[in-house]
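I have been asked to look over a protein record a colleague put together. Thanks in advance; the entry in question is below.
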Amino acid sequence: MSTLQLTFARQYRKKTTGKLVFVYNVKGTAAQLDAYRDAQGSFLVEDEKGQPLFFTSRYVGEACPLVANHEGTGFYADTTTMDKQAAMVEQYGGNLGQALAAQIASSVTSMRSTGVSSQGTPESAGKGLGIV
């Protein structure tokens, strides 16, 4: 099964804890969305248009693949690209690490303003509540 796609929708702070929560729209084929809905069960939350949502305490970019776990019982955001970038910044450290971090931050900012995801696709294109 190919992966679902997350696109950033909004964020909010929980009233009880003050923790930041990021909300993503889940996009995919009808079969993929059915599998996501089944895995979410009673924890499924949909927007006003009936599209499923994914909630996480981690920002996973403006767009990110959403993949099923090995058991097929839950889904998680595939942050491989972001993890690689963070590893490069840490690996090189110092001035080079700072320069890499600045370049990555700049590309994320420009992607958001132009509507292109970190995967190079248009922005329009876990278990429980999907909390990572």
In short: Helices lie at 30-40, 80-92, 94-114.
